From TrEMBL:
<feature type="domain" description="EAL">
    <location>
        <begin position="1"/>
        <end position="249"/>
    </location>
</feature>
<protein>
    <submittedName>
        <fullName>EAL domain-containing protein</fullName>
    </submittedName>
</protein>
Amino acid sequence: RMEKALANALSSGRDITCAYQPLIRAADNQIIGVEALARWQDKELGEISPVQFVPLAEETGLIIPLGKLILRQACREMLRWGDLSLSVNVSPIQLRDGGFARMVLALLAEERFPPERLELELTETAIMNSDANSKHQLVLLREAGVRISLDDFGTGYSSLSLLKDIVVDSVKIDRSFVQFVTQLKDTAAIVTAVSHLGVKLNLQVIAEGVETREQQQFLVDAGCTQLQGFLFSKPLSEEKLEQLFADIE
Ligand code: G
Ligand code: G
Ligand code: NA
Ligand code: MN
């Protein structure tokens, strides 16, 4: 039933929207980008979490139209925000589709959205398990100026060989580390090491799930270049994001 409802929502283009969570530059606390997060409000089923519908979409192949819808909607809405960068989550299933890079680049051209402003977030596990074609899709995107980010960094395996073999532009330290960074010595050591490594490799190091000032201070001292989390902002509707910018001015 949910599959049918999701298919309907995708073909109508209504009911599925983007929420936007700001990314903050550690150096000056400025908002430098947002991450688009899919939201689905069904008339009968109510609000359904992406934790539910993203896996369903992956199992049914609906992730292909869902991914495209989110990307297009986010590009359109973001064009109004000057040079903010836009991060969009990508499922490994989308990447396996031979035409992924071509689809993204054509969409960016149609929407007149500069490739340099787009960052695609892929999980460490997704990139690790990717085949030659998927890796080729990433190369094509990077050649066009799109940036690639390793999401949920630290939760998969062989993180270090990934950094050596795959060209990425940033790593996002997973929330499960950030959460305990001021409480657990080992977690603090891991985050510091990963952050130093990222900086040495010329990567942006993004900490996600930042909730307290103490965590912020630790992460900035460790060398993280960008921060994201409830301390700064929850994911916001387009209207709420607009209001946030108006309040800042
Ligand atoms: O939005 P929320 O913060 O509840 O996200 C829950 C999970 O769903 C996260 O793992 C997030 O990466 C994933 N997610 C949200 N939106 C999208 C999307 O557009 N595409 C994909 N592939 N995953 C998404
Ligand atoms: O997998 P991904 O990193 O894309 O997950 C994004 C999810 O993380 C969203 O569900 C978002 O609501 C959630 N999130 C973002 N910031 C915070 C935070 O500071 N604390 C917690 N608990 N969740 C967060
Ligand atoms: Na993400
Ligand atoms: Mn993440």
